Amino acid sequence: MLKGVIAMDKVRIGIVGIGNMGRAHARYLLDKKVANAELTAICDSDPEKLHWATQAFGDTIRCYQKYDEMISSGVIDGVLIVAPHYDHSPLAIKAFKKGLHVLTEKPAGVYTKQVREMNDAAEKCGKIFGIMYNQRTNPVYQKLRDLIKSGELGDLKRTNWILTNWYRPQSYYDSGGWRATWEGEGGGVLINQVPHQLDLWQWICGMPVKVRSFCQFGKYHNIEVEDDVTAYVEYENGATGVFVTSTGDAPGTNRLEVTGTMGKAVIENDTLTFWRNRMSERVFNEDFKGGFGFPECWKCEIPVSGDNRQHEGITENWVNAILKGSSLLAPGTEGINGLIISNAIHLSTWIDDWVHIPFDEELFLEKLMEKIKTSTFKKLKNKAVTFSVDGTH
Amino acid sequence: MLKGVIAMDKVRIGIVGIGNMGRAHARYLLDKKVANAELTAICDSDPEKLHWATQAFGDTIRCYQKYDEMISSGVIDGVLIVAPHYDHSPLAIKAFKKGLHVLTEKPAGVYTKQVREMNDAAEKCGKIFGIMYNQRTNPVYQKLRDLIKSGELGDLKRTNWILTNWYRPQSYYDSGGWRATWEGEGGGVLINQVPHQLDLWQWICGMPVKVRSFCQFGKYHNIEVEDDVTAYVEYENGATGVFVTSTGDAPGTNRLEVTGTMGKAVIENDTLTFWRNRMSERVFNEDFKGGFGFPECWKCEIPVSGDNRQHEGITENWVNAILKGSSLLAPGTEGINGLIISNAIHLSTWIDDWVHIPFDEELFLEKLMEKIKTSTFKKLKNKAVTFSVDGTH
């Protein structure tokens, strides 16, 4: 029998954290949108939220205020972790120790050291470990990855992602005391909004080897963490990349351009266009004697098909990995890659210098702890608010 | 009588430098594409090129091997400088001293110190001084500038120019011994191809106050200067910007995005689209209480009209300034702005650090001279080749 496959016909899931996103996960599970999955338990340390869950979901779901009780209850086969970022790793490690499968929300954690411990625990326990990189279900990104992995784009020359469509107004940040603080989240747009795209960036284009970045903190909002980021990276083969993101731009842009020796691919407005060189630019460069000229290039509209099932898709993929041993689209252990880029971007700004990957993880943690310790930011004492997350990620 | 206006009905022009671009200028002047302008003289130190010019243009045009003779000849009212970059400033200064009007090709010079001397000479002499920033005649850039100057885009937040459509194959670089050397050109794509867009960038968005850049030298070609550049800038109000250029990408991109508090404008494929916020994002940010939401935004296709007469347009505008006292679209003294950005981008890479504007011009010059002195680059000993520049800038 394959690793993680056990004789059962459905996976009983417990959700830890029943705020905005936890509720969204609970709803599609209760609506039976994911085959062979059953929501059997919910855990939240906040009694009011638990009370709300009982009212909303009925008493067939077991409610726990203590995580340890839920994972020892015997009513779940796996946990879906929708807790604050810092808690992802410790909660996952506890679950693995109880022999449970784990699907964690992004980010994998706040700092890589923590995530390495989680990955080690997953490895030792042998259970199915997934991460909610629900943008990996988007066929347009899958197709671009396919185009690169197949070699049809040639050798990588340049990547450029303008990803500024993560707009958030001040009321979003005021809605929870943990939001957008070093202590509560460990970062801003990098750690909350763009982990998906940092993951896709490396999933599609590979990991950079050095980073020089420019974060601006509390630029557009009354927060202490970054809400505006420009990062420059270089890859092992000398290719360059730019990643721009913000929660302050309205309207924003989501445009990913990847250039290789065989042409250029652009994803914008959920369509993929490939400007395909008939011959490699590198060959043309050497052979063409006319001074001014270009390789012949064909504009190709690349067909993209398949559902983009997002959260449901990732959860179902994880459930199938548990029940049928099928491969994970977003293995939990890959969560560290996007976080490495995220941490490197923070660190580069903090030290105002290059960060080479692998970077000094102790230094990052030291700097992060310093931010927490020296924080003078006073949150508005608003009551925590739960918004609908329909249409967000 | 207005400054520079003299009683004459046409401007007699002498061109210095009759290579690729010089020939293009000569042709449209001979074809009478520019009203009230007459090509009366040509100067080139290369006897073969002069011979070619006599054959091609006939003997009504005076040919000079020595620039001093041409500017003392009495047969010209103004010079069009199409010489190597380092010579722009000294040639212009000589012409001003003879009381001639000057229209210089871009770049204004190779280093700002040199250009300041040229600007001083122009100021003292009071003659009409223009620069061949022929992209300023493009109505689509004029319109974007108008949109910003009128305040309709609001306060600047972000600029992003991906300008990688300056592809050049190796044969281009092999076609002249001066090309793409520190001694011959003083730089690569920054000094030869993109001065136009560095000018437009500052003309439209204003000057940055600090620059952190990443040039790669001889990355895609057998040259010693930069052929791949990524630059990050910040403006006085904290807005950020990115400028990416290369002569190694095929096919390239030319996409300028400018974001302000009132929305976002994008120029791509020679069209201007404005995503217009109905209210300022800054006001929405404070007033909206729903957590997730955006200012109402209208996608506006901005009409752009008018001819883009490029080189002919700039020459005619300069001629009209001489004859009629009309204002210059591209005053020569503004040439220094794009060069400041260009020099700052070089310097930032050389010192691997931030460059604040105004920067240390002596340091830049010192570093440039060091590059020239320590150059070990050996050019292929090809005969100089003259290509057609139809369709290039």
Describe what this molecule looks like in 3D.
2 copies of one chain form a homodimer. Chain A is of the alpha/beta class. Chain A is built from 13 helices and 15 strands. In chain A, strands 14-13-12-11-7-10-9-8-15 form a 9-stranded mixed β-sheet. In chain A, strands 3-2-1-4-5-6 form a 6-stranded parallel β-sheet, with helices on both faces. In chain A, helix 4 packs parallel to helix 5 and helix 9 packs across helix 12. The longest helix of chain A has 17 residues. The two termini of chain A are 35 Å apart. The N terminus of chain A is likely disordered. The interface between A and B is large, with 59 and 59 residues.
Question: Most extensive interface, residues per chain?
Answer: A-B, 59 and 59 residues
The oligomeric state is: homodimer
Model regions low in confidence, pLDDT < 50 over at least 5 residues of chain A: 1-5
What level of helicity do the residues of chain A show? 25-40%
Strand order of the largest sheet of chain A: 14-13-12-11-7-10-9-8-15
- The number of distinct β-strands of chain A equals 15
* Major sheet description of chain A: 9 strands, mixed
How does the helix and strand content of chain A classify structurally? Answer: alpha/beta
Distance between the ends of chain A: 35 Å
Roughly how many Å is the radius of gyration of chain A?
Answer: 22 Å
Shape of chain A: globular
Order of helical and strand elements of chain A = EHEHEHEHEHEHEHHHEEEEEEHEHHEH
The proportion of strand residues of chain A reads 15-25%
